[in-house]
C-alpha cells in the first residue's frame, strides 16, 4: 500500500473523519492508485468529477479518467449514494405519518424488530433518525434513555417513535401500547413531545396518533 495512504490513515485515525479534505476521503475509499496514476492524483481527479456530475452520469464520468476502472468508480459512487441516502431525511418536514414513511420504510423488510426514534425541531423538521433497539421477530426491549438521548443531544422539541412488525401485521400489541404510554410519560418529564408512534409492515402502517391511542405528552 502506498506510503501516502498509510500516513493519511494515521492522521485521520488520530484527528477524526472531519479532518481530511474531500479528495483525501476519496483516497481512503480507493485504497490505492495504479502504476501510472498515484492515488492522490486519482482522488483529486475524481473529486473534480463529482463537482460536475449527477447520479445519472457519475460512474461514466469516473470511467473517463485514465486509470480509473469500474471497481473504483463504483466504490466511490456507492459511497456517495450511501451518504446521500443517509442525509436526505435531514430538514424534511413531517406533518403526518405518510411524510415519514419514505424514510423508515426500509425497516419494514427486516426480519427482526427495529425501534427507531426520529427527533424533530419545533417546526417538525427532521434533526436525526436513529435505531435505538433491535430485538427478535416478535419484540424489542426499548429503554427510554436510549430513545430520548439523541433528542436531548440535538435539542429536539419532539420525537416520532416507529418500529416494524416482521409478522406482516401493523396492528399494535398490548406490549406496544404499554411501551408507548411509558415513553410518553418519560417524554413528558423531559419536556419533549411525542408526536406519534408508527408501526410499519411491508404493506401497511399503523399510526397511534391517527387512531387516537396516543397519550398527550409535553
Walk me through what this model shows.
- The protein has 218 residues and is α+β, with helices and mostly antiparallel strands.
- It is 43% helix and 16% strand.
- It has eight helices and five strands, in the order H-H-H-H-H-H-E-E-H-E-H-E-E.
- A five-stranded mixed sheet has the order 2-1-3-4-5, sandwiched between helices.
- The longest helix has 18 residues, at 70-87.
- It is elongated.
- The mean pLDDT is 89.
Secondary structure blueprint with pairings:
Layout: H1 3-15, H2 22-30, H3 39-51, H4 58-63, H5 70-87, H6 97-104, E1 114-120, E2 126-134, H7 144-153, E3 158-164, H8 174-190, E4 193-200, E5 205-207
Parallel strand pairs: 3-4
Antiparallel strand pairs: 1-2, 1-3, 4-5
Give me a quick take on this structure.
The protein has 218 residues and is of the alpha+beta class. 43% of the residues lie in helices and 16% in strands. It is built from eight helices and five strands, in the order H-H-H-H-H-H-E-E-H-E-H-E-E.
Q: Uncertain spans, ≥5 residues at pLDDT below 50?
A: none
For the record, give the distance between the C-alpha atoms at the N and C termini, rounded to a whole number. 56 Å
Structural class: alpha+beta
Strand ordering within the main sheet = 2-1-3-4-5
**Cα shape:** elongated
Helix content: 40-55%
Radius of gyration: 22 Å
What are the secondary-structure elements, in order, as H or E? Answer: HHHHHHEEHEHEE
Q: Average the pLDDT over all residues and give the rounded result.
A: 89
Beta strands, count: 5
Range of strand content: 15-25%
The quaternary state of the protein chains shown equals: single chain
Tell me the number of helical segments per DSSP (H or I, 4 or more residues long): 8
Please give the largest β-sheet: 5 strands, mixed
Amino acid at each position: 500500500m502506498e506510503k501516502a495512504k498509510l500516513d493519511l490513515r494515521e492522521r485521520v485515525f488520530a484527528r477524526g473523519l472531519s479532518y481530511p479534505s474531500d479528495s483525501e476521503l476519496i483516497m481512503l475509499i480507493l485504497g490505492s492508485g495504479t502504476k501510472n496514476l498515484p492515488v492522490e492524483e486519482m482522488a483529486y481527479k475524481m473529486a473534480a468529477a463529482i463537482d460536475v456530475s449527477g447520479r445519472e452520469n457519475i460512474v461514466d464520468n469516473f470511467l473517463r479518467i485514465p486509470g480509473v476502472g469500474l471497481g473504483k468508480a463504483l466504490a466511490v459512487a456507492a459511497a456517495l449514494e450511501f451518504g446521500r441516502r443517509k442525509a436526505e431525511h435531514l430538514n424534511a418536514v413531517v406533518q403526518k405519518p405518510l411524510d415519514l414513511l419514505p424514510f423508515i420504510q426500509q425497516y419494514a423488510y427486516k426480519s427482526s424488530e427495529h425501534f427507531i426514534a426520529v427527533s424533530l425541531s419545533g417546526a417538525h423538521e427532521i434533526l436525526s433518525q436513529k435505531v435505538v433497539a433491535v430485538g427478535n421477530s416478535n419484540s424489542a426491549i426499548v429503554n427510554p434513555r436510549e430513545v430520548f438521548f439523541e433528542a436531548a443531544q440535538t435539542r429536539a422539541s419532539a420525537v416520532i417513535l416507529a418500529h416494524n412488525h416482521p409478522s406482516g401485521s401493523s396492528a399494535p400489541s398490548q406490549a406496544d401500547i404499554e411501551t408507548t404510554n411509558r415513553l410518553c410519560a418519560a417524554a413528558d418529564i423531559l419536556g419533549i413531545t411525542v408526536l406519534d408512534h408508527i408501526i410499519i409492515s411491508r404493506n401497511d402502517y399503523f399510526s397511534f396518533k391517527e387512531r387516537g391511542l396516543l397519550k398527550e405528552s409535553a
